[in-house]
Amino acid sequence: MADINYTDKIPNNVNLSEDRTLQRALEHWQPNYLEWWNDMGPNGSGQHDVYLRTATSTAPDGWANFGHVKMPDYRWGIFLAQAQEQRKVGFGDEKGRDVWQEVPGEHRANLRRIIVTQGDTEPASVEQQRHLGTTAPSQYDLRNLFQINVEEGRHLWAMVYLLQKHFGRDGREEAEALLERRSGDADNPRILGAFNEETPDWLAFYMFTYFTDRDGKFQLAALAESAFDPLSRTTRFMLTEEAHHMFVGESGVSRVIVRTCEVMKATGIEDPAELRKHGVIDLPTLQRYLNFHYSVTIDLFGADQSSNAAIFYSSGLKGRYEESKRDDDHILKGGSYKILEAKDGALVEKEVPMLNALNEVLRDDYIRDSGAGVGRWQRVIDKAGINFKLSVPHKAFNRHIGSFANIRVSPAGQVLSEAEWAVNVDQWLATESDRAYVASLMGRVVETGKYANWIAPPPIGINKQAADFEYVRFN
Ligand SMILES: [Fe+2]
Ligand SMILES: [Fe+2]
Fold first, then answer.
1. Distance from the CA of 123 to the center of ligand 1, in angstroms?
2. Ligand that comes closest to the CA of residue 145
3. Rounded CA gap, 131 and 388, in Å?
4. Continuous segment of H or E residues that includes residue 51
């Protein structure tokens, strides 16, 4: 890589061509990244020409350049959102002071941990999704999968840039370790639970991109408030890409519902078992998938009471969602927040210090935001005149982190005995047979403009392309 033109090969706005130290670090890391992509990226896709969006600058016309690209040739770039003049720390003990361009020694370990934890989720999701290409319901969907995969790859670059630029030798070691952990690996797994789950089928993929990429949105939004300005700027740019991932999830689930309702109307069938004979995904199964992905995702926000969360906030490392839009003192000492805990077989509110409850605050913001899309899915069902209510489970349902980890709670929020849970769990979480049924629908549809039977076509193409546009050339 010694004589490459950095601006061409690695689009960036971090002055890479002048930064020898960073070049040397990237020269070492980039071949390992490509090896990881070839081993763990989308299966058997190296020769496809894929209609992808590539960011070449952060200007409004620069971040969405569309064209057919082979994914190993995708130009993974390094972008920071535009610097804000005179930006000040917006919260915590240093509120009002200048933001930091370098990492303060006393916050180094915590910042590195935050960046590594975020960075780890990016390649993890690529690994989780690597087999989906072989069962894509259309070229359109295949292209969207690949778009998400290359952008999660770029998000890894974004975090690796911070590690290599600002954390010296241990940053470089962490950057290598990000390529070594593997989703679901028994010996060297990814850091967070939801990123070690499988994404075995396309319904799971849409649920993942709706719910779990939305966790990404909230984490990135909280980091965009950071006093460490390079972290703030890189996460602000990542957020522009994240929106498409959630769109793929929301519209994907919506198209599944459209198709199911269509068949329900045409046949007059409501019974799930009968409906399955028509090759569509019954709504109770969709609800069980939703329950699973939602509950696994809200675990990602961490324990409901956390002294780390308090430290991260007070020291200016990680803010709240939309910090600047809140009208409080942005220091939060002495404040309190109501969390839930189980007491004598019921869930009761308990007031705890606000600073310690910031994971819960972010989780509650997420819960409000993710419910909106579920409401839009419901409207599709209502509009079709089908009598079925989708719902978001109670936040204590199926939790493995925090104070609900050791209790059983129904989707409606009722505390249960182990026996009551065992009798009902198959109605609440996708079963082996649900997953086997959904898997049985997953045939590969590759003809231009064609869609699998279980999903409706999208109302509009990517970048407004026509319905018969060739999104992927298989070569
Ligand atoms: Fe991401
Ligand atoms: Fe994402």
1. 9
2. 2
3. 32
4. strand 49-54
